[in-house]
Amino acid sequence: MTQQAITIAVFLAVGLLFWMVALAASHLARPRRPSATKETAYECGIKPFGRAWYQVHVRYYIYALLFVLFDVEVAFLFPWATIFRRLSGFEIFLLVDVLIFLVVLVFGLVYAWRKGALEWE
Amino acid sequence: MNELLRILLTVVGVLLGVMTLAPGLIWGERRLLALWQDRCGPNRVGPFGSLQLVADMIKILTKEDWIPPFADKPVFIIAPSIIVTATLSSFAVVVFAPGIAVADLNIGVLFFLAMSAMAVYSVALGGWASNNKYALLGSIRAVGQMLSYEVFMALSLMGVVALSGSFSFGDIVEAQRDLWFCVPQCLGLAVFFIAALAETRRVPLDLPEAESELVAGYHTEYSGMKFAMFFLGEYIGVTLNAVIIVALFFGGWHGPWLPPVVWFLLKTLAVIGLFVLIRASLPRPRYDQLMEFGWKALLPLALLNLLATGAIILARGG
User: Fold this and answer.
1) Do B158 and A7 touch (CB under 8 A)?
2) Using CB atoms, which residue from A3, A8, A86 is nearest to B89?
3) Residue B100: strand pairing partners
4) How many domains, chain B?
5) Cβ B61–A25 below 8 Å, yes or no?
6) How far apart are the C-alpha atoms of B196 and B96, rounded to whole Å?
7) Does the beta carbon of A114 lie under 8 angstroms from any beta carbon of chain B?
């Protein structure tokens, strides 16, 4: 396990080296000619107005909440999936278990659906 | 010492493979798109335009790499390298053939999912740090889309894990010796494929960079080598997802006559071709349609797939 972790670290280090070299090469080769027009944000040719760090639609926040809810569910389901075939004789209990778990979660999904959390308006 | 040499050789081999396949894919995709859309495509530089890529690389190296004075500079620089690192690191856990893997982690699938979630940071931070309205809109769209499809992607893999009883890519491919998982897991494959399109932000699900609405989305302000990193990150992502689909659903290295690695490569190229064909043929949905389709169709389908897989394993007696 430790050896594998080290191997992956080596892999990443070599991979990053590629990019360091690429960035360094471009740093040496690229020109730099700033001008007043170039220093403005790109807004299709119109003079930019106001700041760009503004508020975004609250919908995205709701999707983030849904993500947290269902990704935690996935985290709970993964151990179930690995163990499912190994406990021969107990599968029926495991299936009923996960059925109860999923029914509770699907109930949550239906609730969100009925409340309109999945609609985009 | 021998062991160390073997590890180093695989590391360099896998990296070189990915680093040739992913940029080569840019040329291959343009040629294929041209073929399917009845155009010529790049055909001037080298035989069949195959040196177009070299020309593009030289060009992008000598382009001005502009950092906007109004941007959040450190974040702006770090963001593009996150996507490359995150997508590249997933290749470390894939088993390409018996014995050819950087590290066959026993939590390989989890590692892949974790790393593809890391790619969200790159897009989110890059768009936010640009301090440009189009970039912010693109990145916030990307976050919503990628987070949502991350859930469906993980759920669709649950059936594969249940069938093979392991997270390790080696074990999963070995479990497909008799029957590829694309048959019992066809529903999971469909969900995973759509989620993979959304995760890599490919046409038709490229809403974070929809040209007709958002210029270039989250990388509007990027240029030169940093833009190239975002671009390459996307293509490495496509290669990665094709590799994952081959390993988890299409029997990995299994196949008659040819050596295992060749089979793996051929299957990967076929899946990449499918990605390109989809790009050539399908229009882009609206953002609300994309999200509603995900939460209302893909999520129930993935859950159903999981339950059905469990029931079938039970009925067949383990």
Assistant:
1) no
2) A8
3) B97
4) 1
5) yes
6) 20
7) no
The answer to whether the Cβ–Cβ distance between B15 and A15 falls below 8 Å is: yes
Residue among A11, A31, A41 whose CB faces B64 most closely: A31
- In chain A, where the domains are located: 58-114
ipTM of the complex: 0.83
Query: Count of CB atoms within 10 A of residue B56's CB?
Result: 17
Q: What are phi and psi of B97, to 5 degrees?
A: -160, 165
Q: Is B195 part of a structural domain of the chain?
A: yes
B 48-107: CB under 8 A from A: 60-66, 68-70, 81, 84-85, 88-89, 91-93, 102-106
Q: How far apart are CA A44 and CA B214, in angstroms?
A: 10
Question: A11 — contact with chain B (CB < 8 Å)?
Answer: yes
> B223 at the A interface (CB within 8 A)?
no
Give the residue from B36, B39, B76 showing the smallest Cα distance to B229: B76
What is the nearest CA distance from A100 to chain B, expressed in angstroms? 11
The reply to whether B138 falls in a domain is yes
Full residue range of the structural domain in which residue B242 is found: 67-315
Is residue B34 one of the residues assigned to a domain? Answer: no
Shortest alpha-carbon distance between residue A48 and chain B (Å):
9
- CB of A104 closer than 8 Å to CB of A72: no
Letter for the amino acid at B3? E
pLDDT by 10s per residue, chain B, length 318: 677 787 788 888 888 888 888 888 888 888 888 888 888 888 888 788 788 888 888 888 888 888 888 888 888 888 888 888 888 888 888 888 787 777 788 888 888 988 888 888 888 888 888 888 888 888 888 888 888 898 889 888 888 888 888 888 888 888 888 888 887 888 899 999 999 999 888 878 887 777 777 777 788 888 888 888 888 888 889 999 999 999 889 888 887 888 888 888 899 999 999 999 998 888 888 888 888 888 888 888 998 898 888 888 877 765
CB B11 within 8 A of CB A11: yes
d(CA B89, CA B84): 8
Q: Is A91 on the interface with B (CB under 8 A)?
A: yes
Is residue B53 one of the residues assigned to a domain? Answer: no
Shortest Cα–Cα distance, A74 to chain B (Å)? 6
Give the nearest partner residue to B136 out of A25, A52, A95, using CB atoms.
Answer: A52
Nearest to B148 by CA among B292, B305, B278, B283: B292
Q: Is A49 on the interface with B (CB under 8 A)?
A: no
